[in-house]
Specification:
Chain B: This is Cell division transport system ATP-binding protein. The complex is a heterodimer of chains A (301) and B (251). Chain A is of the alpha+beta class. Chain A has two domains: 184 residues, no CATH class; 80 residues, no CATH class. Chain A is 69% helix and 8% strand. Chain A is built from eleven helices and four strands, in the order H-H-H-E-H-E-H-E-H-E-H-H-H-H-H. In chain A, strands 2-3-1-4 form a four-stranded antiparallel beta sheet, covered by helices on one side. Chain B has 251 residues and is of the alpha/beta class. Classes of the chains: A alpha+beta (301), B alpha/beta (251). At the A-B interface, helix 2, helix 8 and helix 9 of A face helix 3 and helix 5 of B.
């Protein structure tokens, strides 16, 4: 506890003399910087994946849950009448906010990826689609199905639950995967810093012996290493986070192509979240180096 | 050496239980101490007391345990049997930080000096002040005085590997006394230097003793002991067969 307090004070205030007593370790320092930067870069992507998956799960779970579609499958000459009948039923169905039949142009654009833009939709037995937006409390899908079966035999209600449930599950899993990745990245950073700190402490066993000879406490010796590794991790992670955010910014936007991968990024206040990564890395390095220093100093005593 | 004489570098506050060195108190006391390592006993049944302001030599053949006994004197080693008291506290009951504080009151000069090779001589000498957080408090004035006392003013900016054997010993002595310790321990301080330099180091150690510091020198240099006894009253402790055999006897 005392060591922690002194280390925090030293980290905050800085002690040029204490910094100088441990010889500079150029190569190890660069490796720690590089490792912290790489881990932070990967952490930005893991965070983006997790947040994007969360958004997707929300959309599929909440927004799509309040939409439904009716397909009116009827001969061409009855299609219009059955569509009107279905819309009349929907007008009197509790829980339906809005309902409208898709226009020919809208249906044509839906089929365009498969049949091309010149499709003569009137000449084909394509079902007419009715889009339903539910109220917040939702509607009674089973009751509606029974009414449609009785009055509009060609109408089939699809409330999307069949394909929505596995997608929501997949998005939730992806979100979890993102957080697991984040945890693993942080743990890996902690392991790397611990290894580097152990190596530095072992390489400086003679320095530690001299410092002890002249009356240095373990807290004093540890703080020199803790401050050094914490600042390295902080600096490296800041650079890695900056690069990661830049890479996310340079991803193609949703407007360009659409789809999940192009939505992999941050939206709104989520852009602030990655800024936590450098401080988290610094905290991890602080704790990892402190633990390594305590262990090594005890062994060297 | 005014800064040592006037006690300008004396700690304003002692650690934990404030321990003052009274004239009747033993600064270092061994009671039936034994030390074993790797299955073999290096020291056995050692009982010795160092009073404040006393001057002692520790002699004995190579490998007799002089350095081990010196290390027991500042808590670098713990006895495997018996009791070692430093300034009235049993070393085995001390925390590591307590031992660190003890070392601020015990200046040590090793035969191999032990410096931080990446720091200049002046910073190495000032290291005890740095680690005790008193560097800013004392400033560089006392350090300059100390450098002048050991004749290293012109070598202040040199790195330790650039120093000669004698210069290293004098720098180590300066570092050992910069905190104005109560005790100065020197392990073979003249082992790597010529006769003239050994006399110079001896004069410094005698001067420290006259300032009231307790001095313990481990050496097998009989000439050094004789030269010292001509200047101050010194006691000789001889280690042989793991025991102190001639404690209190003159050479």
């Amino acid at each position: 506890m005392k060591m922690l307090r002194i280390a925090l004070a030293s980290l905050w205030n800085g002690d040029r003399q204490a910094d100088r007593v441990v010889p500079p370790s150029g190569f190890t320092a660069q490796l720690t910087l590089f490792a912290a930067a790489t881990m932070a870069f990967l952490a930005v992507f893991a965070l983006a994946l997790s947040l994007a998956s969360g958004r997707l799960a929300h959309i599929w779970g909440q927004e799509l849950a309040r939409t439904a579609t009716i397909r009116v499958v009827a001969p061409i000459d009855q299609r219009s009448a059955q569509t009107d009948a279905a819309l009349r039923i929907l007008e009197t169905t509790k829980g339906v906010a809005t309902a409208r039949a898709l226009t020919d142009e809208e249906q044509q654009s839906l089929l365009a990826p498969w049949f091309g833009p010149e499709l003569a939709i009137d000449a084909l037995p394509v079902p007419r689609l009715i889009e339903i937006i539910e109220e917040d409390d939702g509607m009674d899908a089973d009751g509606l199905r029974l009414r449609l079966a009785a009055e509009v035999p060609g109408a089939v209600l699809d409330n999307h639950s069949r394909w929505r449930a596995p997608l929501v599950k997949a998005a939730s899993r992806l979100k979890l995967l993102g957080w697991v990745s984040m945890t693993l990245i942080i743990a890996t950073l902690a392991a790397m810093v611990t290894l580097a700190a152990n190596a530095a402490l072992s390489a400086n066993a003679q320095v530690i012996a001299v410092l002890r000879l002249v009356g240095a406490t373990d807290s004093y010796i540890a703080q020199a290493f803790i401050r050094r590794f914490t600042l390295r991790a902080l600096t490296g992670a800041a650079a890695g986070t900056g690069l990661g955010l830049l890479a996310i910014l340079l991803l193609p936007s949703t407007a360009d192509a659409g789809g999940f991968l192009t939505g992999l990024g941050f939206q709104g206040w989520h852009w602030i979240v990655p800024l936590v990564i450098p401080f988290l890395s610094g905290g991890v390095a602080f704790v990892a180096t402190g633990a390594a220093a305590r262990r090594t100093l005890k062994d060297l005593a | 050496m005014q800064c040592l004489r006037r006690g300008a570098l004396k700690p304003k506050r002692c650690w934990g239980t404030t321990v003052q060195t009274k004239r009747d108190m033993r600064v270092i006391e061994f009671e039936n101490v034994a030390y074993s390592y790797g299955g073999g006993e290096l020291l056995s049944d050692i009982s010795v007391k160092l009073a404040p302001g006393s001057f002692h030599f520790l002699t004995g053949p190579s490998g007799s345990g002089k350095t081990t006994l010196m290390k027991l004197c500042y808590g670098a080693l713990l006895p495997t049997a018996g009791h070692v008291s430093l300034f009235g506290k049993d070393v085995r009951t001390m925390e590591r930080d307590d031992i660190a504080m003890i070392r601020r009151r015990v200046g040590v000069v090793h035969q191999d000096c032990q410096f931080l090779n990446h720091l200049p001589v002046a910073e190495n000498i000032g290291l005890p002040l740095t680690v005790s957080g008193r560097h800013a408090e004392t400033g560089g004035e006392d350090l300059q005085e100390l450098l002048s006392w050991v004749g290293l003013s012109s070598r202040a900016d040199a790195l330790p590997p650039e120093l000669s054997g004698g210069e290293r010993q004098r720098a180590a002595l300066a570092r050992a006394v910069i905190m104005s310790p109560d005790v100065v321990l020197a392990d073979e301080p003249t082992g790597n230097v010529d006769w003239e330099m050994s006399q110079r180091l001896l004069r410094l150690l005698v001067e420290l003793n006259r300032m009231g510091k307790t001095v313990l020198i481990a050496t097998h240099d009989l000439g050094l002991i004789r030269a010292t006894k001509a200047q101050v009253q010194a006691r000789v402790l001889r280690i042989a067969n793991r025991r102190i055999q001639l404690a209190g006897a003159d050479l």
